Amino acid sequence: MPAADPLVCLDDLARPAAARLPADVWDFIAGGSGRETTLAHNRAALDSVRLVPRVLADVSRPRTATRLLGVEADMPVAVAPMAYHALVHPEGEIATARAAAAAGVPLVAAMLSSRPLEQVAQAGRPPLLQLYWLHDRALLLRLVRRAEEIGCPGLMLTVDVPRMARRLRDLRRRFVLPSHVRPVELDEAPCPGADRVPTVAEHTEAVFDASLSWPDLEWLREQTALPLILKGVLDPADAARAASAGIDAVVVSNHGGRQLDGAVAAVSALPAVRAAVGDACDVLLDSGIRSGTDVLRALALGATGVLLGRPVLWGLAVGGERGLADVFSLLKQEIEDALVLAGCPRPEAARGLTTVLDGSVMNEIDRV
Predict the structure, then answer these.
(1) Where glyoxylate is bound, by residue (predicted)?
(2) Is 6 contained in some domain?
(3) What CATH number is associated with residue 338?
(4) What distances in angstroms separate CA 335 from CA 144, 299, 306, 328, one per listed residue?
């Protein structure tokens, strides 16, 4: 069912989504790690970015379309990889795939998906596939081959989860997945506690391999010709090394405040990462995006586009495929409004905008 109140911004969906979901599921989605300082700082840092609009730029025929993650996109936004969409809606990732395809928004299918990759691709269009580094290297490689077979346009390796951080909301609620939700892509992987349902943290501890390092990245690069994206990069030195290793894109992200509590806000790290890689690879921003203005901020600081996370699950929880369609429609209108008001007829023009951070004009990003 659609939300009872008019949807005028994405935050309007948070309250009805919380009301519809079990409290432990809402906390699993909404929460961060530790004292959630990074979760809060993501929002504060985005709000601190001031934009200097340009005028006399002829924005009479604006467009939001661009090329993102190797595919055509109706706006510089892709759906972030998020686990277990079936927690919030019975159709899970199937509904997400349909809505994303209809809106022209690229989808990154999570490794911890509640629906098989092939079904997700059939419902919409072939998604990118997110990977975590697994102890079972053969299982990892089978997932890569399946992605190749169905025409996935790329692989997104998440590199900031050597282990799952302590997420206090989940610990307090002793959160475990309900019986109807499971990680279908990892069913063949070993699972702890055969006599009970393991927590999400226990499951990831059993299957994720914390030994991931640069030689492993080189090995993965050798295994496939698919574009390879690294998600979870904050240090400019790591970004530069990734670019030199042939990575096609990096995603500046702190995992939505769900990993190292106290980590820098993603948007604060973005300018230095872009400066470090130059034009050697694309750069995307993840963590905290809630509006078209946030998207414009990311573009102005050097991002090619952004990943949208929690609002996708809010829309799915409130109205399924239709609710998510409303999220995409509203965000596209907000992005167009922000571009026009900033004097940018297209997303690429926003990279030349001047920004002000903490009173200092930021001009590190080369004008294009």
Answers:
(1) 132, 167, 255
(2) no
(3) 3.20.20.70
(4) 34, 11, 12, 10
